[in-house]
Amino acid sequence: MDAENWTSRLQRALPVSSRALLLVNRHARQGQQSLLEAIHCLEQLGFDLIEESTEHPKHLSEVILRHQHEIDLVIVGGGDGTLNAAVDALVETQLPLGILPLGTANDLARTLGIPKSLNEACKVIAYGELRRIDLGLVNDKYFFNVASLGLSVKITQRLTKEVKRRWGIFAYAATALQVIWESRPFSAEIRINGKSYRVKTVQIAVGNGRYYGGGMAVAPDATIDDQRLDLYSLEIEKWWQIIPLLPAMRQGRHIEWRSVRALQGQEIEVSTRKPRPINTDGEITTYTPAHFRVIPKAVTVLMPPIETF
């Protein structure tokens, strides 16, 4: 995307002197080194910033609620886990969200077409379009991208901050291969659209957005405003059967394989014999039994005009 071309043609969606709450996860892979650069760039673009940081992303919602009446928008710098930590307050306050992709995977930014370049991401916040997007809700926890159980939970449990900071996106691939080798199927029941499916699976993923896990697509035509959830279940018996699937998962084409069950709907229930942890946007936040719903047009985000990506 050539940000200079489209920014010169557009009017700002928000007032030039917008007051913004800037929240940066200093522990994000690029957090500390990018903070000063982001402040400078956003101030040059006319934003009046309230800059806050926290050692614990779980406190982000509290910070947003504390400043909600002083600001026009919230800007979050970090990865998908940091964004997920802020989502409850964004729903409650209905403040627009600007994103600086400073994490390892940055799957929500990828779904929205937000560029990796910090300067261009700042220009998206200044000159991008305000668009309403859907959220997923599992039990009482919102998610932007994907909620899943099985392999992804084990990958999350092993992906330490140190590993992600050192190896970046390659940490996902290396950890995934290790977890896949150790994987064992589990039993689950999926209820959707008035039907029930009993499955033996190594992973069930329910997607609201398009990308997750460092750039894998949940379905080839998934979007974050299609008002539906896309579920897939990996029903393999041997660990090595997943290896041929991996390239197809980059485009979401895995759903065409016989060993993958693909379903779509607005509400889904998943139950297991014993409670299993569920990963939402890279963080373990709830357990089965799980009730998934799509919440249409739940929050507003700043993103590039559609024709630019």
TrEMBL record:
Keyword Mitochondrion in annotation: no
GO MF entries: ATP binding; kinase activity
Top-level taxon: Bacteria
SMART domains assigned to the protein according to its UniProt record, in alphabetical order: DAGKc
PROSITE patterns in the cross-refs: DAGK
Any one Pfam family match given in the protein's UniProt record, by short name: YegS_C
Keywords, comma-separated and alphabetical: ATP-binding, Kinase, Lipid biosynthesis, Lipid metabolism, Nucleotide-binding, Phospholipid biosynthesis, Phospholipid metabolism, Transferase
Cofactor(s) named in the record: Mg(2+)
InterPro entries named in the record: ATP-NAD_kinase_N, Diacylglycerol/lipid_kinase, Diacylglycerol_kinase_cat_dom, Lipid_Phosphate_FormReg, NAD/diacylglycerol_kinase_sf, YegS/DAGK_C
Membrane-spanning segments: none
Domain DAGKc: 15-142
Biological process (GO), any one: phospholipid biosynthetic process
Gene3D superfamilies documented for this protein: 2.60.200.40, Probable inorganic polyphosphate/atp-NAD kinase, domain 1
Keyword Cell cycle included in the entry's annotation: no
Family membership: Belongs to the diacylglycerol/lipid kinase family.
NCBIfam families per UniProt: PRK13057.1 (NF009604), YegS/Rv2252/BmrU family lipid kinase (TIGR00147)
Protein name: Lipid kinase
